[in-house]
Amino acid sequence: MAALDELTRPAGDDDHVGGVPARLVASPASTEEAAALVAAAQGLSVVVRGGGTKIHWGPPPRSLDLIIDTRRLSGVVEHAAGDLITVVGAGTPLGDLALGDQQLAIDFHPGATVGGVVATGASGPRRLHYGTARDLLIGITVVRPDGVVARSGGKVVKNVAGYDLGKLYTGSYGTLGLITECVFRLHPRPAASAYVRSTAPAQAVSAILAAQVAPTAIEIDTATGELAVLLEGTASGVRERAALIEKLLAGEVSETAPGWWGRDPWAPDEIGLKLSVPLSKVPALVDSGSALRGSAGTGVLYAAARDITEVERLRALCVRSGGHAVVLTAPAEVRDILDMWGPVPGLAVMRRIKEQFDPGYRFAPGRFVGGI
Amino acid sequence: MADIDALALALRAELGPEQVVTDRQTLRTYECDGLAHYKVIPALVVLPHTAAQVATVVKACAAAGVPFVARGSGTGLSGGALPHAEGVLIVTAQMRRIVEIAPADERAVVEPGVINLQVTRAATPHGYYYAPDPSSQQICSIGGNVAENSGGAHCLKYGFTTNHVTGLQIVTPDGDLVRLGGRALDPPGYDLIGAFVGSEGTLGVATEVTVRLTRLPESVRTLLAAFTSIDAAGAATSAIIAAGVVPAAIEMMDALAIEAAEAAVACGYPPGAAAVLVVELDGPSAEVEAQFEQVTALCTKEGAFEIRIAADEAERALFWKGRKSAFAAVGRISPDYIVQDGVIPRTALPEVLRRISEVADSHGVRVANVFHAGDGNLHPLVLFDARVEGEAERAETVSGAIIDLCIEYGGSITGEHGVGMDKAKYMPRMFGDDDLDTMQLVRCAFDPDHLSNPGKVFPTPRLCGERPGSNLAERFPGVEVF
């Protein structure tokens, strides 16, 4: 086994996570290299980093020795167009995927990698129609914290053989090991698309859904007071459906998305939350006075909170409605006194899973729910 | 059996005598699920009415170290609900209350014994339905669907059970009632719902399920296309996908399957067809009409000699009747048969079907092919006559060879029927030791004593080592553990 110092380099000034500096950085270029690295790093605390677009999400690690940079685990390993699947390295930037007339239908922050989107379970407007990473991921290769390489799922969409580890790793914030390769189901790129922009209230969402036009996204933004709908399909079909929604909302058809579409509503040094409520509670949440933006058609919205009081008010509102409010990002002084994750049902089982996969609590220690 | 007798006594007192079955004759009626050649008489059957009763039963099993197996309607095709001879069979069929249809939340909350189709029936008046539609949807239960991650003909477009469950109440193998998720999406923490759905009863028992309801499509169009060769039907399937169309379903049947369906339900498919495709599109009328024309043209271009377009709901039902009754229909042309379930990349379809036919011929066995062509999910029906010596063995050989072909072409040993008892032996051909070991870490987290449906899915159980406890505080003294 190669010694750790042959596989790593000393960390630089930018190699910190939430203000906690790392000692070492490594950039493995294959699953095998990654496995050798993790095996050699036993005893070290590790945070996995992709494009770094969401590295500030979640609490800082309790300790940090090694950052594993995934960006050399990149590239499309396979694109089987006829089978509508692709196999990609976890460090591949989503923006670099060139899949011809097909697409991996996941919205992402500019610069984000495949592994980062999967590890955080991040999603955007189009989740209404396509689902999220958990729905599109059909196979995964990981390096466990003990250095063992494991795969689950496969390269076919329909597959129920064995446990679906991909679901468990999606949204696990790097606490169960390193994701090195992902297999996704793809969708055809739509021939045409159109947005309908309006100032209709959130209450209009149920009318949009009742219209049976199969929207790809329904987004709301309280700052501009806008409600916008994305429609995709054939040129003539989109024209007809967009016209119907235009009339329904007294809106306006537009070829381009509103400027706020799919963007986080907070500035870099503000408190950013992800809120989730049952669909029927969306209007009440939107009317509650906070600055919100997001998927009014699925009940997953984002908020910029002014202070901890507002976080608590929003969290109470969401939890009372049967939902959740997670603080994704916050300035250090706020983060340190805030429970970022909020109440987590099923935490006891989650702890047992963590202890099976990472008994030393070395991967992203303290970054996840309940101090996991 | 002292443990079981004591358990029966205790559970009688807790649940009431009519909910605990010990009579040998009645126990025998539970000896198998839909895969009838595996038979095990359970030591005890319980029929709980509530989640609390399920928890009571599981807790009692855990305390006594007695294994338990959950069973819904018993329609599974991999022996997943096969009882344990020294264990308790927990039958959820009495838990069939639809707790709530909540169209404003696009959710339904149901007990595990609720029949799949009942959810759709209850939701339809509100303009919604439940999308996963296994062929057995008139009798299979939602609890069983959750265990098996059931699919159906329409999962090409709409996904599987796992894409439609947003909340679960489960009883963990130590008897705790735990709620996961709910009506809202993306609950914080590990995706335990994702881990649980499709775990085939090995991580506990689902006692309540919250599912997505899907808006009824404005338009549904269905066609039946007949081809003179399997290859042409396969080429048409590929052409439809390549054109960027995502049909709700593309189903294929070969000549032998058509013959069986004709004999059983007189579905009136075009005579002389070597293969038929049933293609269904759904969605907004403005999209469906244009794409339907495109699909029709592609079928013609790939050599369909007859295309029928369903004029109304009755004709659509007839197209589907032939397809959905195909399994049972095979009984008309063969006294016995094995239903296989494997997956291949859809582009390999013509090649794999040729190889299946070669294998079948070389063993003198007939194979009827029925499958979800759109997603490469094959259901070859391997025909045999158990009264003829050697036929059952030959059929078993061919059935196993088909699974080997699925693996060789980079597919899966099961697309929707599950691993269960039947396919645990194939798991090491699809996954390495480390893969299986890693999956079983999840098992160890939920069920370190292997009491929940033991012997299923994994050929070799993993030793879970020292029992994990919540020792975070010990490991990190001074760190707040909230």
TrEMBL record, chain A:
Q: Where is this region: Disordered?
A: 1-20
**Keyword Glycoprotein in record:** no
What Pfam families does the record tag this protein with? FAD_binding_4
Q: Which residues form the FAD-binding PCMH-type domain?
A: 17-189
Q: What residue spans carry the Basic and acidic residues bias annotation? A: 1-17
Top-level division of the source organism's lineage: Bacteria
Q: Which UniProt keywords apply?
A: FAD, Flavoprotein
Which InterPro entries does this one have?
Answer: FAD-bd_PCMH (IPR016166), FAD-bd_PCMH-like_sf (IPR036318), FAD-bd_PCMH_sub2 (IPR016169), FAD-linked_Oxase-like_C (IPR016164), Oxid_FAD_bind_N (IPR006094)
Q: Which PROSITE patterns match?
A: FAD_PCMH (PS51387)
Q: Which ranges form a coiled coil?
A: none
Q: What is this protein called?
A: FAD-binding protein
TrEMBL record, chain B:
Q: What's this protein's name?
A: FAD-binding protein
* UniProt entry tagged with the keyword Flavoprotein: yes
> Does this UniProt record's set of keywords contain Oxidoreductase?
yes
Check the record and name the Gene3D superfamilies matching this protein. Answer: 3.30.465.10, 3.30.70.2190, 3.30.70.2740, Uridine Diphospho-n-acetylenolpyruvylglucosamine Reductase, domain 2 (3.30.43.10), Vanillyl-alcohol Oxidase, Chain A, domain 4 (1.10.45.10)
One Pfam family per UniProt: FAD-oxidase_C
Source species of the chain: Paractinoplanes pyxinae
Q: Which UniProt keywords apply?
A: FAD, Flavoprotein, Oxidoreductase
Domain FAD-binding PCMH-type as annotated: residue spans = 38-216
Names of required cofactors:
FAD
